[in-house]
Write a structure and sequence with these properties.
With 559 residues, the protein is mostly helical. Strand 1, helix 3 and strand 2 form a beta-alpha-beta unit. The strands form 4 sheets. It has a two-stranded parallel ribbon. Strands 3-4 form a two-stranded antiparallel sheet. Strands 5-6 form a two-stranded antiparallel sheet. It has 3 domains: 86 residues, P-loop containing nucleotide triphosphate hydrolases (Rossmann fold); 103 residues, no CATH class; 227 residues, no CATH class. The chain is elongated. It is built from 21 helices and 8 strands.
Length: 559
């Protein structure tokens, strides 16, 4: 951003005034020309495609006018569209315009087209005035000569003098305009019809060329979209970092919660053993569940007020072609980065305390997805509602179902059967729309089935089964013995969780149906690991929430 400001101030010639106070009506530290250039610079910060100026050179000295004209010319070369209203342009400024729209009294359109063609556009009217010479005085003849001279030197005054050219009317006794606004309106209409017919007869469409042009336009639009997203992301990140108190609280909360939760749940049976053991800790499952709930809450807390304060900014940026989905992508990506940092800090503090080994990636994925789910819920509320207080009041009502219906506090098997549509369903149907139900099961099953100890053992056993070579088998058995001697399963496996998952796997095997907390799901004779399946479900869940948020933003725009 600093480099961008430096570039713009240099472009408008104000870099040497970067530390100067603008002032007010009583104390002016910048000249009139410098103030106008500063106004142009302020608009350029938003990188607009179209710049609209009202009388940009009025009240300026010739030097300031020339400087402003040079700036506008430079912006034109950069691909900007510059629209300016101007009443008395000098010849230099006039010739720099590519297109000209000339209006008469009452907003009547006199001419629209190339600046270089406007002087020939009035040839018929100049000839009519010249033919009128025999009936007018010598004073009026001299004015006709002046008109011809101004046309010869391409002076803009020629156009205004011709429009306002008047003569004495003997009938009314007053001076009247030679050409009325209605005359110019009719002339412009006929000229437009002629150009339309001429264009249709002179041009044939090259459809292949048209298709190529469309492809180029689509690519160009995609590049512009990337630039808009890039700048909006930088702006949002700077805004976040500027609020240091909020940033400190955001990143300190995660490790502090990790320290408190892990310390409280680090249970050791003092009567039977003096050392803490991950294997015997009955609170490991509870730690997983609380971690998921904490990150859903952190995600909602981070995002619940993201859109409401920026509705005016979004409305303003839509005028420069910023799309709702671009705005939402920027918000979502920035929140995901914050969530990833929070999840990493949480695990770096809590895992050594609980002594969870070799599972950082799996825990990170599920805690990150928990926070992302919270982000999606918060963005949807912030996009759908207008009042911060109403959104904040909804937090408990959204968090309580995550606690009750995840399958940890109240086992699904112990819930009232009347809440199930299908009595044999392993999980009540309405619980499947609760993100924490998928996240808790996913992280728990990952710990039970994807821990380093079990994965290594299963790999060695698979290698032994696949080979028929006795020497190779001997090698694998030697590897197995070395692994069992060096590795202690109690460092990687939790007894309570292992028993729960093994029991559910047994039920799934006997019934040939999925059971909550079993290792696999069975879909159309295909076996899918629950640890992977639940990730797909949560990603799909967040995509739906994203679409609903876009719909909410669009409805707010229409209202």
């Amino acid at each position: 951003m600093r480099e961008k400001i430096k570039h713009i101030l240099t472009l408008v010639g104000l870099w040497d005034k970067k530390n100067t106070i603008v002032g007010n009506a009583d104390k002016k530290y910048l000249s009139g020309g410098e103030r106008k250039r500063l106004n142009v610079a302020l608009e350029l910060l938003l990188d607009p495609t179209i710049i609209v100026l009202d009388e940009p050179t009025s009240g300026l000295s010739s030097k300031d006018s020339e400087k402003l004209i040079e700036i506008l010319d430079e912006l034109k070369l950069q691909g900007k569209i510059i629209i300016a209203t101007i009443h008395q342009p000098n010849a230099d400024l006039f010739q720099r315009f590519d297109k000209l729209l000339l209006l008469d009294r009452g907003g009547i359109q006199v001419y629209f087209g190339s600046t270089k063609d406007i002087f020939s556009y009035f040839d018929d009217e100049l000839e009519k005035i010249t033919q009128y010479d025999e009936q007018v005085s010598s004073k009026e003849i001299s004015s006709v000569v002046m008109l011809m001279q101004k046309k010869k030197f391409l002076m803009p005054e020629y156009i205004f003098d011709l429009l306002e050219y008047s003569h004495y009317s003997g009938l009314s006794g007053f001076t009247e305009r030679f050409f009325t606004p209605l005359y110019w309106k009719e002339k412009y209409r006929k000229n437009q019809l002629y150009e339309i017919f001429h264009y249709q007869n002179a041009h044939e469409y090259d459809y292949n060329s048209s298709d190529k042009t469309e492809i180029i336009k689509e690519r160009f639009e995609f590049i512009k979209c990337l630039f808009r997203v890039h700048y909006m992301f930088l702006r949002n990140m700077i805004n976040k970092l500027s609020n240091r108190t909020n940033i400190i609280i955001t990143f300190i909360a995660s490790p502090l919660l990790a320290l408190v939760i892990a310390f409280i749940l680090r249970y050791a049976d003092i009567e039977n053993t003096s050392d803490y053991s991950f294997y015997h800790n009955p609170n490991v499952v509870l730690f997983m569940f609380i971690s998921v709930i904490v990150f859903i809450f952190l995600g909602m807390a981070n995002s619940i007020n993201e859109i409401i304060p920026e509705r005016r900014i979004l409305s303003r940026e839509k005028k420069i072609n910023v799309k709702d989905y671009e705005f939402l992508i920027v918000k979502f990506v920035l929140l995901c980065i914050i969530s990833a940092i929070q999840a990493s800090l949480f695990l770096l503090v809590s895992m050594p305390i609980i002594k969870i080994n070799g599972m950082f990636i799996y825990y990170f994925i599920y805690l990150f997805l928990s926070a992302v789910s919270g982000n999606s819920i918060g963005l949807l509320l912030s996009g759908a509602l207008n009042d911060r207080e109403s959104v904040t009041n909804l937090l408990p009502y959204l968090l309580i179902p995550q606690i009750l219906f995840a399958g940890a506090v109240i086992p699904f098997a112990e819930m009232n059967n009347y809440i199930k549509i299908c009595e044999k369903a392993a999980v009540p149907e309405f619980c499947n729309i609760i993100p924490s139900r998928w996240l808790f099961e996913g992280i728990a099953v990952s710990q039970a089935s994807n821990n380093y100890y079990d994965l290594k053992l299963n790999k060695i056993y698979d290698d032994i089964k696949k080979t028929d070579d006795s020497s190779q088998k001997t090698k694998y058995y030697r590897e197995l013995n070395n692994f069992l001697k060096k590795s202690n399963k109690e460092d990687y496996i939790n007894l309570k969780l292992m028993n729960w998952v093994n029991m559910q796997n047994g039920r799934a095997y006997n019934t040939n149906k999925y059971q909550f907390m079993s290792t696999n799901r069975y879909i159309k004779s295909k076996t899918i690991p629950v640890s992977s399946f639940n990730v797909y479900i949560i990603v799909f869940f967040n995509m739906i929430l994203g679409v609903l948020t876009l719909i909410a933003l669009k409805r707010k725009k229409e209202n």
